[in-house]
Design goal:
alpha+beta, 3 helices, 3 strands, 38% helix
Length: 89
């Protein structure tokens, strides 16, 4: 796993890579205007049968190092199973 401790600014691509490493075979989209606050959408079959809070915990687990080092200050999550995503209007 790549180290982000003391990295300061982190790119949306780096956040996406961390989430994909923690949740393989996921579709991930990351938006950030300032490199510290991120809006993340994750579609993963790993979320099937899990409550929303459990889904978010899986994503937080994938980026915990970046949060602990304060490279990520805020993470707004939208999580979906593939079925939920397909049914989205």
């Amino acid at each position: 796993m790549q180290s982000v401790r003391g990295a300061g600014m982190i790119s949306p691509d780096q956040v996406e890579a961390m989430i994909k490493a923690g949740l393989p075979n996921s579709q991930v989209a990351v938006i950030s205007n300032d490199g510290e606050h991120f809006e993340v959408t994750v579609v993963s079959s790993s979320f099937e049968g899990k409550r929303r809070v459990q889904q978010h915990q899986l994503v937080y687990g994938a980026v915990k190092q970046a949060i602990a080092s304060e490279a990520i200050h805020a993470l707004a999550l939208n999580t979906f199973t593939p079925e939920e995503w397909a049914a989205k209007p």
